[in-house]
Amino acid sequence: MSVPERESGLTTIQFVLATAISLMTFVMLANFVVFLYARGVVRAAVDEGARTGGRAGAGVEQCEARADDLLSDLLSGMRSAVEIECTTGPDIVSSQARVTLRGWLPLTPDWSFDITGQAVREPA
Prior knowledge:
alpha+beta
């Protein structure tokens, strides 16, 4: 084997490795952006659920249903990663979400977080 053939093979391996690392980096960044989008959707769903549950005559069922509707519309593919629970007090409605988002690659860590939203109940 001549020297140029050896260098050509080495260059090909370097190119393939560099391409693989670049693609993995791109997928990890895209995964991070999707996680941020999901966090924003969960925040909006928790707030909207609490506002709906705080209306006069509404309760826990309406709060959870509204949050679930919003999550199903905007986060349908990752809906199973979110658990919503609403509670009511004399003056406040709270909704809490527990979220565990799974990474797309083994190198990408999972992301777990809780978000709480509250709204003041309207008088009946």
